[in-house]
User: Fold this.
Amino acid sequence: MTSYSPSLDWLDTQHQRMCALVEQWAAINSGTHNPAGLEKMTRLLLDAFSSLGGDTELLDAASLESVGSDGQIHQQPLAKVIHIIKRPDAPRRVFLGIHMDTVYPADHPFQSTQHVDANTLRGPGVADAKGGLAVMLLALEALERSSATDTLGWEVLINADEEIGSPGSAHLLADAAKRCHLGLVFEPTLADGTLAGARGGAGRFTLVFKGKPAHVGRQFHDGRSAIDAMASTITALSLLNGSVPGAIVNVGHVEGGGPINVVPDLAICRINVRATNQDAQNAVQQHLQQVLTDARRHDGITVQMHGQWTSPPKPMDHATQTLFQHVAVCGRDLGLSIKCNDTAGVCDGNKLAAAGLPTVDTLGPRGGGIHSTQEFVLLDSLTERAKLSALLMLKLATGQIDWPNK
Ligand SMILES: [Zn+2]
Assistant:
């Protein structure tokens, strides 16, 4: 522990700087669909992360494919992804990642930070994940200050579409996962410091029903109602809740129809699906297909399903468990008790795990109220969590943690 002290003690001197970074970044709206704000955020992040001396580039994200109210597929460009790499040929390579986007659009009322008390900062994205960006940056700076870095390479990915399931950056996450040996993701932990363990999986699907329009008064029986077909399908989908163990099917949005004297020929429903594990995911998938097959039996109705399982379940396998144990030991060295609980929430950790990378994905600061106007971060946890990740990387660099190479 003592040989790591200079780097860890240095982090104590950086507390004010970390607080200032979080405040500065949270004051910029970087909602996923605010390209101007994301560009501004990208410039600030490139500037801040230049202290690390890695090779930096902006990578293109894939465009977002979505089904519009007209039932047609639309493509929408997504912001570029920051990629920084250092010592790519080192025998051990760590992936570090977190997102710069937030759930708050540019016209959302929650736009500024406020000090609730000496240790609590409320504001948009302060925990999720601008605090995480600061923790990741400072943990790496602490590592780079050490002389024992030769054996440890690292790769940073900062995406701008995590809050919508990372549709544009998923392929970049998967590529990076293949080049690295373990993953550190800086989503916030719970206010008491509890990390997320196993995670369930999630999918987003859109069903487009098409029928045949007809005037209600003159030719009602020639028409085929897309809304009627959708309604019985939604009922069937709702019945999956409770009958498929470990699965949640939420029809969150419906639209369709038009003038009420016309049999509606278009209806659209959007569904969020959750599964606690792979078995549940397979079962839901099978039932979804069956519901779809039944829906297509409606006379004169066509049904198309778009979407996918965006985040496969993230189980606590042996390698991941070992990594958590190393994190817990680092915590103990620092006087922290690190626990973890399973969660139904998903994040990029699901995608990294699915690509074969053992990942701890809640190494950001302690906080809460995320995705609401009550979002807060506990400021003392910024240094605390930067030390935790720095210590883990320092132990990897010196070989004190002997992590298996791929
Ligand atoms: Zn997040």
User: Anything to note?
Assistant: The longest strand covers residues 201-210. The domain at 201-311 is CATH 3.30.70.360 (Alpha-Beta Plaits). The mean pLDDT is 96. Residues 99, 128-129, 162, 187, 347 surround zinc ion (CB under 6 Å).
